[in-house]
Every structure is written in structure tokens, then in C-alpha cells.
Hints:
Largest sheet: 4 strands, antiparallel
Low-confidence stretches: 6-15
Mean pLDDT: 83
Number of helices: 2
Radius of gyration: 18 Å
Shape: globular
Amino acid sequence: MKTTIVAVVLVCLVFGAAIAYDDTRVKIQEMVNDLGPPQERAKNNGKVQNCMDGGTKKITIKKSKGGGTSYEGVYKNCREFSSQREGNVVITLGR
């Protein structure tokens, strides 16, 4: 009985970590998309942009010397594509 419970808990932990990883990748891709098309991303990085239906967003992507990458999104009442985003998102990968 104890072995079954431990096995179930481990499966839940692994599955939960996979879902969290997936959500992180989705958020990173949303921030990259918010910077615009590839040729505009460097220009828009770190600048406040207007959202399509009101509000603003500021996306900053920084690469560290150690090989890590930091993604930061600051959303202020940003309304686009039938959704509204508010607040800060910070994700750091690597060192």
C-alpha cells in the first residue's frame, strides 16, 4: 500500500513539473511574439509599446555572459486578442 502511494506521488510530481515547464515555454514564446516580427525584435526590446486595444507592454530579453537568458514582461492593462494582461512576468533560464 505504501509503495503504491509513493509511486502515485512521484508520478504526480513528475507530471506537475512537466506542466510547469510547458507553461514557462508558452510564456517565453508569448513575450518573444510581443516583440514583433524577427526583424523588429532587437529594436523593440526594452521599449514600451502600445497594445492593440489599449494599455502598454514592455518586453526585455537579456543574455548573460554565463549563457543564461532573462525574459521580463511588464504589462499595464494590455488588451490584445480578446485577452487582458496586467503585471510583471520574469523568467530566467541558465546562469
